[in-house]
Fold Small heat shock protein IbpA.
Amino acid sequence: MSKLTLGSHPYLLGFEQLERLLERSAKSGNEGYPPFNIEQTSENSYRITLAVAGFAEEDLAITLEDRQLVIRGRQTDDGDGRVFLHRGIAARQFQRSFVLAEGVEVGEAVMENGLLHVDLSRAEPERVIQRIDIRRG
C-alpha cells in the first residue's frame, strides 16, 4: 500500500505546491520570540503585530521572499564602556516568517509603542464560470 499525501490525492489536481508550502511553514521555526498576534481586521484584511520592545525602526527589516513574509530584527550592542551589574535585557536577534496565500498583498508597516504592525490585504477573487465545448474525436 502506498502512502497517500495531499499532493497525490486523485481528486486534488495541481495541489503539489500546497504540500511543499506546508512543509516550508513547518520548518520556519516554532520559537516564541518575539511574541505576535494575527488578527482579521475585515473580511479581506489582516494585521500581524509583533512585540519588539527595545528595537528601533532601523533594527528591523521586512522582506517578501517567494510569498513568504520575513521579519528580522537585530539590535546593536551599545554596551561599550558600560558596566552591567545585571544584564537581563539582552541584545537579541530574531527572524519570524509567515507564508502568505496567493493574492495576499503586504500593505504598510507601523511601529507604535514597542509594537510592529504589518497590514495585509487580499484582493477579492473573481468568480469565473467557463464553459468547455466538447468536440468530436
In short: Helices lie at 16-26. The chain has two domains: 1-30, 32-122. The longest helix spans residues 16-26.
